[in-house]
Amino acid sequence: MFKHILVPLDGSQLAEAVLPLAASLGETLPAMVTLLHVIEKNAPDLVHQERHLTAAKEATAYLAEVAKRAFPKKVKVDYHVHTRAVPNVVDSIVLHAQRDFRPDLIILCSHGRSGVRDLVSSSIAQQVVAESTIPVLLVKPKEAESPRTTFHKILVPLDNESAHDQSLPIAADLARAYKAEIAMICVIPTRGTLSGEKALAGTMLPGTAAAYLEIAEENARQHFQEHLKDFQKAKIPASASIERGDPATVIARAAQSMDADLILFATHGNAGFEAFWRGSVAANVARRTDIPLLLIPLLRD
């Protein structure tokens, strides 16, 4: 489970949207928290319409104040300022994460101009997940208005087989820590929502496509029964549902209707992650909801 959390901050109120969840995780799990600020070379005067922290002394004082203000005394909080100005803040964050701090979790605010899409385009989350095995928790700036400080229901989208099952142990650990319920969901496309080569096959061979989707739904049903038995043995409240339609639309709608506090996705790391974000279900869900997303990189063979 998460024992060390890295929280990069740029000094803006938007970035501070991550702090309530970071404090909650630090206290509940419990976990150590490291706050990080990287001095940017030739930095602009403003970041998110606020004064940019470009002096090491000022940045250190800021992180010290955040550590005192935003975290309970029982949470161990450290902070670090990368004082040598760097041209690429993203690369510095990734390097610190991999070489120096080795956290179990990185929490980032998705405060790009167009939301999570800009964040991923700027490659903070993309590089961290693609180049390491560190999970990333993405928090929307809206969380600063009514921040979540606990998890009651965790939504875990799965495929109809076992490719994303590596996310379930983390979901189980979080559910135990917060006494939360796990809601698993598998969305089987309809012929009309198939994409790419599958959409072409569905048009040319509608009967074959329909049979394929029926088999996928039956596989998902059997798959979920096994997981429900495991959660029952572990005394973790859990439910499962199988839906039909566009996966991202259905997942985002389900998360909203059940008032989920977290959506937990397994992700394909390494070279596949860039493509994953271009047209992935997780990226499309992120654009449709303000609920925090926890991205768990799949272990490589």
What brief labels describe this structure?
Rossmann fold, 23% strand, alpha/beta, two-stranded antiparallel ribbon, 2 domains, 10-stranded mixed beta sheet, 301 residues
Order of helices and strands: EHEEEHEHEHHEEHEHHEHEHHE
- Largest sheet report: 10 strands, mixed
Return the CATH class of the largest domain.
Alpha Beta
How many β-strand runs?
12
CATH topology assignment of the largest domain: Rossmann fold
> What is the C-alpha radius of gyration, as a whole number of Å?
20 Å
Based on secondary structure, the structural category is: alpha/beta
CATH architecture of the largest domain: 3-Layer(aba) Sandwich
What can you see in these coordinates?
The structure is a single chain. The chain folds into 2 domains: 4-144, HUPs (Rossmann fold, 3-Layer(aba) Sandwich); 153-297, Rossmann fold, CATH 3.40.50. With 301 residues, the protein is of the alpha/beta class. 42% of the residues lie in helices and 23% in strands. The chain has a 10-stranded mixed β-sheet, with helices on both faces. Strands 3-4 form a two-stranded antiparallel ribbon. The protein is built from 11 helices and 12 strands. Strand 3 (46-47) and strand 4 form a beta hairpin. It has helices at residues 19-28, 56-70, 89-101, 116-121, 124-131, 168-178, 196-204, 206-233, 247-257, 272-279, 281-286; strands spanning 4-8, 32-40, 46-47, 50-51, 77-86, 105-109, 136-139, 153-157, 181-188, 238-244, 262-267, 293-297. The protein is elongated and about 65 Å long.
